[in-house]
Design the sequence.
């Protein structure tokens, strides 16, 4: 597990309903950061059903989910769990840190 945080953007650059993607500075994992009504969540930007970027899909703010455009699998932005078939496995959830200098995330898997 890396203690290195990856810079996403300035806090003012990620408004509610918006998302940003970055690659972890250590593991190179694709990370999707979403502003869901002012709360920030980070998930691996890779559908667990088929290796496809979740960031290409729409966010449903009411449900708090994102949909993979490839086959329609949906994932909860808050915890990464799969909400419907064809995905059954969750996607990795990562920590988010916000300070005066920016929004930060990291791949904290062992």
Sequence:
């Amino acid at each position: 597990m890396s203690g290195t945080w990856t810079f996403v953007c300035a806090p003012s650059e990620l408004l509610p309903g918006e998302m940003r993607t970055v690659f972890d500075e250590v593991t190179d994992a694709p990370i999707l950061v979403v502003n869901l009504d002012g709360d920030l969540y980070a998930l691996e930007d890779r559908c667990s059903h088929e290796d496809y970027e979740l960031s290409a899909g729409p966010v449903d703010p009411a449900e708090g989910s994102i949909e993979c455009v490839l086959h329609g699998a949906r994932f909860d932005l808050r915890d990464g769990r799969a909400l419907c078939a064809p995905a059954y496995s969750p996607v990795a959830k990562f920590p988010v840190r916000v300070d005066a200098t920016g929004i930060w995330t990291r791949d904290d898997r062992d």
Notes: Strands lie at 6-9, 19-23, 30-36, 39-44, 59-60, 65-67, 74-76, 93-94, 96-99, 102-105. The chain has a mean pLDDT of 96. The CA atoms of residues 24 and 83 lie 26 Å apart. The chain has no helices and ten strands.
